[in-house]
Structures are given as C-alpha cells and as structure tokens.
C-alpha cells in the first residue's frame, strides 16, 4: 500500500542520514588525529614532544586545519560556527596551540575531546562566550534591621585551630536546618564533611546527570536552576531525570525575540514553576538554542510532570541572607571577615541538596582554553554575569606546600570544556582579592515528597569490602599531612615525595593530572606525541 511505501522511504532516509553522520564523525576523528601528529616535532632529545611554530606550518597541515573545521561545523550543534566567523589556517593553528599549551599535562584522549570544541575554529575566539552567560542580578535588598540582629556568629561552633580563615574548612553541623533532614544524604562515603564528589560514584543519581551545553544563548540562569532542582530530586530519592530547559526558556515572560539574548535569574525560574505548575522532562521537549524564543508549548498528555506535588516554600529570614519566596541567597561580600561561615553554609547545602547555584564573573576569566583539572586560584568581582553550580569540594596542596580547599563547579558549556564540563576553584582565592570568586550562592527552598520506591540499600558486600577508592581515604587523612615532615605511613623522612606534593598541586580525593573525572589513566599529550605512530599510520 501507499502507507507502507511511504514508511519504508522514511526509514530509508533516516538510515542514510545516520550513515552520513557516522561517516562525518569518523572523518573528524581522523582529522583530529592527523593534526595532533603534525603539530608536534622532534626536539633535541629525539622526543616528538615540542610544538611547532607558526612559520613551520606546512601546506598539508593548513589543508587539514580547514578540513577539520569544516567537519566540526557539520557536527556542531551549539551554534558557534553558525553565528561567528570562522578563522583562517593561522587563526585555527594559534587557537589550537594555545589550547595545547594550557593543557600540556592532559592525556591524549582528553585533548581529542577538547578539539571538538568549535571555539577553536573562530577568527575571534573571545567571541565564544559573548552569548554563553545570561545571568542578570536581581534587585534584592537586605532587611537591615533583621540582618543586624541576626549576624551569623560561629564562636560557639567547633573550630580547627590549625586552619583559621584561609585553609581547610570543616562543616559545622549546627547549620543544618530542619527541612534538610528529610534529604537522603546516606552516601557519606562520597560526600561528607571533608570531601564531596558524587561524580566518583557511578551508581549515584547525581553522577548520571550529564553535562549540558546552553549553546549560543544567554540561558545559564536556566541550566544552573534546573540542575539544582534535579539534584534536589536526586536527594529525595528520584531517578536521574533532566528538566526541559527549553520549556522554561519559552515560558519565560520576556519578549520572544529577546529570550535568547537578555538573560535572567533563578528567581524567574521559580516564578515560572509557580505560574505553570509544570516541568516536563528534557526528553519530552528537548533543548536546542535555535528554538529559544518560540511559543510556550501546550503540555501533551504523555509528558511527565517533574514538579508533581512540589511546593515553593516561603522565605525563612536566614542570618546574612537575602530571602524571598522559594529561595535563600548569600553574598560572599557579606562574609568578608568570616569566610569560614560562608564556606560552611555551602558545604552543608551541597551535602543535603546535592548542589547550590553560584553566581560568578566569567567575562575575561573563563575562555575556551580554561583548565578544569588544575585548581584555579582566582579573584572575583563586585558583579556577576554567569550562573553555575557548586557540586562538591575537596582538599589539595598548593605550589607553596600549603593545605587548601577547593570547590568542584559544574558549568553549562558542554563536555568539551574544562574537565568534562567541570572545574575546580580555590575556596578563598588569593589573599589580595577584594572579592571572592563566588559572588553569591542561591539555594532553593522547595518541598518535594520523598520517593521511597527507588531508595536502594547498600549491598551487604560493602560490609566486608572497600567501596570507596583509595583517594577517598587519602583525603580523609588530609588533616595529618604536613609538607616537609615525616611520611605518615613509613615514619621516615620523605623529602622527594613532599617536594612532589609541593610542586604539583596534588589534589586529594581527585584524580592526578590527566586522569579526568572518570578516573582513567593515560599518557600526557607530550608523551603521547612521542609514541603516536598509530595515529600517523591510520
């Protein structure tokens, strides 16, 4: 019949499209391999580990660079190369070389992924983040009378006498509020007072919420807000389910033509929830930046409501906070003389709700080449333009051999940026900073019922065998680490090891340089360049 013939043609067309996409992916992978080989040369030690100079770029590499960007444009869905001018061979080479210099300690597989960031093909690479932010700070005021009467004071809370003000911070559990006690934070092996990285637990709900890309739209306020609510759902025992960012974007009350460009705040996200009482899943209404600005969609019968039985709670007037219906916000500037209290609040909320929303200044700080594995020691600003999420924390030793702590931050610029979409930043930043890198944090105050149906008990095998990685236990004993003293395990002087710790930013509870969030080991780029015959033979 005609219907059967039509259906057959549709299936055939879809199959041909899939085959074409697979072929393009194969050619792109091949092109990346070829470029990585051609960009390194043999040095005096006969190791192929030195980057070539601009004047050493030959015609074959020039052709490969243009071919690479042409293929990348075909597969890229972020709008980077559709909205900004593609560079010439020299622009692309300089962008790639800069990327390789900033990530010289990365393994070869990580670099191959970073080569899939379309920003490297731009003529003006700084244009990349122009429309990848989207936070507009709301006009909020402190209740000064209440604020002055209820300044947070932790004199009666436990203190670490060895770490005052600028070091390792421990959570004061008295900060926990009554409503947080209903959260499922039983995964204390991967998230506790000293160390929190649920990404290490592959079976954890939060680790299965994959990094997303907001594309060429100022929608970071949506992605940070929805992820915060997604982790709250995880901590309430629900399955990992992404919320539709496009639904929120298109139901926003701003002008249709401006929804992609003007940005907003998490308070608007909460207002949309309250107005519509509905949040579909990403699978119901998938995000594509080019569709931002369309009409608010009519809810279809088969769509699931991820806000079913959810309620927005009224403000609680927390000390040092800006409170409104459904949220509590803390500005780091208000804790300038007591940053430990600010840190403790964030840690407690991450332990209980899985994440917090964080406001930062991204302009002139975070570019396409930004390193996510190294702990960044950054100053902040008196304003913010981008919304991200703090999802964890840990401890490390800096280049001066000092014990420090860091935040694990999730961005919405896709998996090819940073450390698979994440980065680490020192909790306090340099001592000369006027502002902390984290401008503010926002926590949603919502009431979601516990979902006991999917709550899983730990297997009894973990009563006898190790569940956590050795890195967890290394981090657990971090307080006892002192550079230049005896090795804790051998009781012998271990100057070589201590020297290594002092110079290489050892991060406890995290992978060593080049291993990524997944924990896989591999050679660095320079080492791989010296043994990359299999690439050149393809």
Structural commentary:
- The structure is a single chain.
- With 538 residues, this protein is an alpha+beta fold.
- Among the domains are: 2-130, no CATH class; 144-218 and 310-454, Cathepsin B, Chain A (Alpha-Beta Complex).
- Helix content is 30%, strand content 11%.
- It is built from 14 helices and 13 strands.
- The protein has helices at 2-38, 59-75, 80-83, 89-102, 108-114, 144-149, 220-235, 245-250, 266-276, 339-353, 470-476, 495-503, 525-530, 533-536; strands at 40-42, 48-51, 311-312, 322-324, 327-331, 356-360, 375-376, 386-397, 403-410, 422-426, 440-444, 446-447, 507-508.
- Strands 4, 5, 6, 7, 8, 9, 10, 11 and 13 form a nine-stranded mixed beta sheet that branches.
- Strand 1 (40-42) and strand 2 form a beta hairpin.
- Helix 1 (2-38) runs antiparallel to helix 2 (59-75).
- The longest helix is centred in the N-terminal third of the chain and has 37 residues, at 2-38.
- It is globular and about 65 Å long.
- The two termini are 47 Å apart.
- Residues 143-152, 154-181, 483-506, 508-522 and 530-538 have low confidence and may be disordered.
- One of its GO terms (molecular function) is cysteine-type peptidase activity.
- Belongs to the peptidase C1 family.
- Its main location: membrane.
- One of its GO terms (biological process) is proteolysis.
- It comes from Plasmodium falciparum.
